[in-house]
Amino acid sequence: MLPDIRVRQRDYLLEISRALTEELDLDKLLGRILKYAIEMLAGSAGFVALSNNEGHWSLAVANGLPDAIQRFLDSWLDQIPPIQDPKNLQIPEINQVLQQISMGNLSAVGLPLVAQQEVIGFIYIFRNYRGMFSANDRSLLSSFANQAAIAVRNALLYTEVNREKQRIDTMLDSAADGILILNPNHNIERTNAAFARMYGLSQEELMCMDHGKVIQWVKPPHGITLDQAEAGGWPLSPQAHLYVEGDIQRPNGQPPLPVGISYAPLISPEGTLINTIATVRDITRFRQADELKSEFMSIVSHELKTPVALIKGYVSTLRRDDVQWDRDVMDDSLQVIEEEADRLTRLIEDLLDASRLQAGGMKLKQTDINLHDVANRLAERFQVQTQDHQITVDFPENFPVIMGDDVRVEQVLSNLISNAIKYAPDGVIQITGQVLPDQVIICVKDEGPGIPPGDLPHVFDRFYRAPETSRKTKGAGLGLYLARAIIEAHDGRMWVDPKTNSGTRICFSLPRD
Questions:
Q1: Is 410 within 8 Å of 378 (Cβ atoms)?
Q2: pLDDT above 70 for 297
Q3: Are the C-beta atoms of 298 and 273 separated by less than 8 Å?
Q4: Is residue 503 left, alpha or beta, with left meaning phi > 0 and alpha meaning psi from -120 to 50?
Q5: Residue 183: CA atoms inside 13 Å, Cβ hemisphere, count?
């Protein structure tokens, strides 16, 4: 005899209705649904299947079924087509499968989970003894299934909302630009890690802060601010956007930050402003690029203007008809013209090399290089050009021959020796070589004033010249930039030795193989 559980069934329905409306965790909810359904119908096992986005079924939760049967059901359910009629759950194959699994010792009842005319799943309950489920059993399970379907749909929607929120949070946190989400009162509802880093406060500290207290301009920015735009009626449409650029103040004594801020409105279908999305971009690099461009134009203009003016001046002087120049004056003038023309040529070649480097177009012509011979040859050539310096070469015996572009490597060593003559008023200039198992190292050391510590990180930057030396010597700030690029193209490395007691020591390494 089956126990009379009708009174308990009514209590179950009331308890289930209350419990299901409180539970939004889908896995826990499905576990409760199956547990209550088995108890209501005096069953021994059961399972719930749900439909996925592709219209296929999958086993969502099972109770009382062996693992092997669960795995079999899960793979088998994936092949069953979607249910078209919510009023009729007809899957004849499942009864055959269950009969095969249970050897005919199980009886089962199943109903669809229908919410808003859509079948989102179905539930099956089994008894471990033979006998049909009664009409009351089916009616009870139908009432329960209706409640369960609504709860499952709510849990699915809640899961989807949570998943969408996680996706949005991930997108915000992975964005390189800072993002602020403002409510209509300009309070910060949400920010991302990028803005917290660039501003210098944590995301928790920024929450609920007023936009006007966070975005404070050091001086009037370029463009209309958010307050000024809203005073004029902004936004007039969902497509409206606003851009303003300038320097904002930062807390804790940090320097001002150059930023460009884009504002976009989020407007409801009724035309009400829900949020304002502010995208904050750090434009420090763009500012530096503009400054570099201006500096480049200034340097190049000056470096080109000076030799051109000298050449023109000497040529105009030599062409005067009212003066007869003696041979010495003409030779001196022609020498100046030749030197300035060479200087122009070097500057133009350096500019072309810098352009090729940016475009990735500098190609190396590999050949054997005897660096000891190159150093001796350059030392003799530059020694003729200076009376105030003594240029020495110190290489170990049997210094290895390496592979590389001999013209480019000679250009690097020439630049280092030329700089030593230019920046050291006198003294010894040492060119040394060192052999290591996998590389050779070449250094050029002078006895000049050395490089100030503040300039060391920038000596290889393009167009960079130390303020103190730029007033005393000519140059475009390209020599060391190109030299390091050439060495790195050979898979080598170039650096300034900070441990010298006096003067400057610049070294570069090249691979032996």
A1: yes
A2: no
A3: no
A4: left
A5: 9
CA distance 459 to 237: 51
Domain containing 459 equals 367-511
| Count of Cβ atoms closer than 10 Å to residue 394 Cβ | 11
Tell me the mean pLDDT in the region 195-217.
91
Tell whether 13 and 153 lie within a shared domain. Answer: yes
Give dist(CA 369, CA 433) in Å, integer.
Answer: 14
Residues 6+ apart with CB under 8 A from 149: 112, 113, 114, 115, 120, 121
Q: State which of 359, 387, 419 marks the end of a domain.
A: 359
Q: Do residues 10 and 157 share a domain?
A: yes
Amino acid type, 463: F
Q: How far apart are CA 75 and CA 284, in angstroms?
A: 57
CB atoms under 10 Å from CB of 106, counted, come to 18
> Is the CB of residue 110 less than 8 Å from the CB of residue 37?
no
The 3-class SS string of 179-220 reads: EEEECCCCEEEEECHHHHHHHCCCHHHHCCCEHHHHCCECCC
Residues 6+ apart with CB under 8 A from 509: 439, 440, 441, 442, 487, 492, 493, 494
Given this model, what pLDDT does residue 249 score? Answer: 93
Q: Which of 342, 350, 344, 394 is nearest to 372 (CA)?
A: 394
pLDDT digit string, tens, across residues 2-43: 445 555 656 666 666 666 666 677 788 888 888 878 877 778
Q: Mean pLDDT over residues 477-499, rounded?
A: 84
In a domain, 1, yes or no: no
pLDDT tens-digit profile of 113-149? 777 777 778 888 887 766 566 777 667 677 777 777 7
- The number of distinct structural domains making up the chain is 4
Q: SS3 string of 419-464?
A: HHHHHCCCEEEEEEEEECCCEEEEEEECCCCCCCHHHHHHCCCCCC
- d(CA 177, CA 157) in angstroms, rounded, equals 31
Indicate the residue among 297, 328, 359 that finishes a domain: 359
The H-assigned helical ranges of 1-87 are: 6-22, 26-40, 67-77
What pLDDT was estimated at residue 466?
A: 60
19 compared with 382, residue with greater pLDDT = 382
Which residues are 443's β-sheet partners?
A: 432, 507
Nearest to 336 by CA among 328, 347, 325: 328
- Selection from 134, 113, 135, 136 nearest residue 124 by Cα: 113
Strands laid side by side in the 118-127 sheet: 57-63, 45-51, 118-127, 107-115
Mean pLDDT along residues 444-448: 91
Q: Are residues 163 and 180 in the same domain?
A: no
Q: Could you please report the per-residue DSSP string of 362-390?
A: -----EEE-HHHHHHHHHHHHHTT-SSEE
Phi and psi, residue 28, nearest 5°:
-65, -40
pLDDT of residue 213: 92
Nearest-angstrom CA–CA distance, 316 and 286: 44
